[in-house]
Design a protein that fits this description.
alpha/beta; 30 helices; 2-enoyl-CoA Hydratase, Chain A, domain 1; N-(1-d-carboxylethyl)-l-norvaline Dehydrogenase, domain 2; binds (S)-3-Hydroxyhexanoyl-CoA; 20 strands; Rossmann fold; eight-stranded mixed beta sheet
């Protein structure tokens, strides 16, 4: 059996190599093996020093995240205990980082006396994105080594730093260079330290240098973190832990860190963020696809439509170094699209995010064209034209004719049937939906719409494509609105209905943003533009099975020319970017409610939140039961990455699991009764939710193919 840590001795230096693929997560087995080999090296008189390294492309991704939920992360030897033992070693211990070191992996390196690192390595503390903080000495050792400012930045942002930056800050002692094999070179570095009589430099003996901190820095940093991480629990605890390093002796600082770590770990937020970590990775596992399915080559991308969506998608590919041909039907539209892209890049330069050379390199990958012929050799063509079936069918008929055999033909439709578009071609196996979210360059989500005849390798290529352009791809089936927009619809319906029943748009929006949504329903409608919603509804009236009250206010605002931000008025008024509450909308709601016989009444915040969320969760359950989504985690990934659902709640389905499915079912039944005729029509618990509630199970346990 493969050992999770291997042991060897070179030139009187013991080399302990972590060997636990894929990422050397430090679960109990690895911890035990590390402790055993450490003690062997310490007991062997012929060993003068110890090098800790790993095989694989990473040094270590840190603690085994799966052990947190299972409660085994404290099983002996614990990480803090093990790192104490390493730091207290009477023999010199050098961390030789052959690749990235994250979380507990970096804490392990910090417990060593010196750090020798490959230049490509990234080093970071991503714990905050898991709802926790570095809990094995990281918050106490890092500031002692590199100062409070760098430590606070790294620990509260979760962003890794390059090996070069780490060398500059003193986190790394030496970068590997030259031709010599890495481990031999690390052993050479260790021998040199021995020869020079280098001290056993442990962080615990250092204290945080507070003399260089600007006056009031810690307070100011805390305030900034509170502002930028509104709603999140862990970031302020990260600050408190580093503050403890600044004010307390090492041992007491460690104790404080442990307390704060456990406080964070036991929050619903930590469970939610860790759920999302695994859900994002599980998305790439498609049960119906053989693991042997190989992706198609993807070297050149064609995009049809140089509007906002097409341009944003083009930038996402070009940012990833993939050449793009961007097509529009007329010169003016193409030039406009290319100029918008150039302006966006120019803004990135102004903000210091890109250099002029980087922008030039990216623009060189982008070629505008007016001729479909020039898409003939593309490996993937993404159509990003109007949301209109006839237009799309025409484009696909042309693409079928022009594109080389095996090219993937994708549509960026947000609602239309991928199967119907595919049926209009003689190669439905090559057709897929790639539903990017706006703004396409920024939003991480791509819904990969698996048509009934899409070939397996086309799906695999789409998943790989998403990873290449640093997005998260979620495979969904064909239905109106796919998964994300389909769940959005009942959520919006309730928000609109609540306004007719007596809640103001700003109140509904405030309740939703207090919950953590990036935007309220009505601010979102104003941003997208009322006209867009109306166009979509008019194009597919058959698909709208909604209550007649649903779109009344929107439609009326549309007829009044109030399209939202673009026209300066929608559900709100606008002065520049500032939103102003508009009493006319409430008057309009009163008038429309009266015309429909809807009784207006005071509505509390709890009802607003529950109604909006419960119907969304209920629809999500239907989406899973129908097999449109593979599992509930996929819906959480969709909502947190494309629809502004708060990451610290883990997505709507995780939220439902956290508060209990029986509570959701009872809530839906309650509104069914309370809302009388309307309730009877729109509040029926999904059979899947009812079954899970009866069995005391969670949505997270349900998988495609099981009977609801
Ligand atoms: C911590 O350290 C706490 C301590 O401070 C205190 C403790 C007391 N654990 O992402 P990939 C799995 S908290 C368990 O696709 P990449 C992952 O699920 C930890 N599993 O690879 C996937 O499994 P599968 C702080 C982990 O090359 C597989 O490995 N550390 C862990 O694209 C491949 O992952 C972090 O937050 C883990 N720690 O990216 C780092 N890490 O194949 C978390 C990965 O079944 N990890 N897996 O789907 C990462 O950010 C990325 O994995 C990394 C590599 C950048 C390292």
């Amino acid at each position: 059996m493969r050992e999770s840590v291997s042991y060897g001795v070179r030139n009187s230096v013991a080399v302990l190599t972590l060997n636990s693929p894929p990422v050397n997560a430090m679960g109990q087995t690895l911890r035990r093996a590390l402790k055993t080999h450490l003690e062997t090296a310490l007991a062997d008189d012929s060993v003068e020093a110890i090098v800790l390294t790993s095989c694989g492309k990473l040094f270590s991704a840190g603690a085994d995240i799966g052990e947190f939920a299972a409660g085994v992360f404290t099983a002996e030897p614990s990480l803090p205990g093990l790192f104490d033992q390493i730091e207290a070693s009477p023999k010199l211990v050098v961390a030789a980082l052959n690749g990235g070191a994250f979380g507990g992996g970096l804490e392990l390196a910090l417990a060593c006396h010196y750090r020798y690192v490959v230049p490509e390595a990234q080093l970071g503390f991503p714990e905050v994105s898991l709802g926790i903080l570095p809990g094995a000495g990281g918050t106490q050792r890092l500031p002692r080594l590199v100062g409070a400012q760098t430590a606070l930045e790294m620990i509260t942002s979760g962003r890794p730093v390059s090996a070069y930056a780490a060398r500059k800050s003193g986190l790394v002692d030496e970068l590997h260079s030259g031709e010599e094999e890495f481990v031999s070179s690390a052993v050479g570095f260790t021998r040199l330290l021995l020869k020079e009589g280098a001290p056993l430099r442990s962080c615990r003996r250092l204290s945080v240098d507070l003399t260089k901190l600007p006056d009031g820095y810690l307070r100011q940093f805390r305030d900034e973190v509170a502002l930028r991480s509104k709603g999140f629990y862990a970031p302020l605890r990260c600050v408190q832990a580093v503050e403890a390093a600044c004010t307390l002796p090492f041992r007491e600082g460690l104790k404080r860190e442990a307390e704060l770590f456990l406080e964070c770990l036991h929050t619903p937020q930590a469970r939610a963020q860790q759920h999302l970590f695994f859900a994002e990775r599980e998305c790439a596992t498609i049960p119906d696809l053989s693991k042997k399915t190989r992706p198609r080559v993807l070297k050149l991308v064609g995009i049809v439509g140089a509007g906002t969506m097409g341009g944003g998608i083009a930038m996402a590919f070009v940012d990833a170094g993939i050449p793009v041909r961007l097509l529009d039907k007329d010169k003016e539209s193409l030039e406009r699209g290319m100029n918008v892209i150039r302006d966006n890049y120019h803004n990135s330069v102004l903000r210091g995010r890109l250099t002029c050379e980087q922008v030039e390199a990216r623009m060189a990958l982008l070629q505008g064209t007016l001729f479909f012929d020039e898409l003939g050799d593309a490996d993937l063509v993404i159509e990003a034209a109007y949301e209109n079936m006839a237009v799309k069918k025409e484009i696909f008929a042309t693409l079928e004719w022009i594109c080389k055999p095996g090219a993937i033909l994708a549509t960026n439709t947000s609602t239309l049937s991928v199967d119907e578009i595919a049926a209009a071609t003689a190669r439905p196996q090559d057709v897929i939906g790639l539903h990017f979210f706006s703004p396409a360059r920024i939003m991480r989500l791509v819904e990969i719409v698996h048509g009934s005849r899409t070939a397996p390798e086309v799906v695999v290529t789409a998943l790989e494509m998403a990873k290449k352009i640093k997005k998260v791809g979620v495979v969904v089936g064909v239905c109106f609105g796919f998964a994300g927009n389909r769940m959005l619809e009942p959520y919006m319906r309730e928000a609109n209905r609540l306004v007719l029943e007596g809640a103001s748009p700003e109140r509904v929006d405030r309740v939703l943003t207090d919950f953590g949504m990036a935007m309220g329903v009505f601010s979102m409608a104003d941003m997208a533009g009322n006209d867009v919603g109306v166009q979509i509804r008019q194009s597919r009236p058959d698909q709208y099975r909604h209550d007649p009250s649903f779109f009344l206010i929107s439609d009326r605002l549309y007829r009044m020319g109030r399209f939202g931000q673009k026209s300066g008025r929608g559900f709100y008024g606008y002065q520049g970017r500032n939103r102003i509450v508009d009493p006319e909308v409430n008057a309009l709601a009163e008038e429309l409610a009266a015309s429909l016989g809807i009784r207006r009444r005071p509505i509390d915040d709890v009802e607003i939140l529950e109604r909006c969320l419960y119907v969304m969760i209920n629809e999500g359950a239907e989406v899973i039961a129908e097999g449109v989504a593979i599992r509930s985690g996929d819906l959480d990934v969709i909502w947190c990455n494309g629809m502004g659902f708060p990451v610290f709640r883990g997505g709507p389905m995780q939220y439902a699991d956290e508060i209990g499915i029986d509570g959701i079912v009872a809530g839906i039944r309650g509104y069914r009764q309370r809302l009388e005729e309307y309730g009877a029509k729109w509040f029926t618990p999904s059979p899947l939710l009812e079954r899970l509630a009866q069995e005391g199970k969670k949505l997270g346990q349900f998988r495609k193919g099981q009977q609801p």
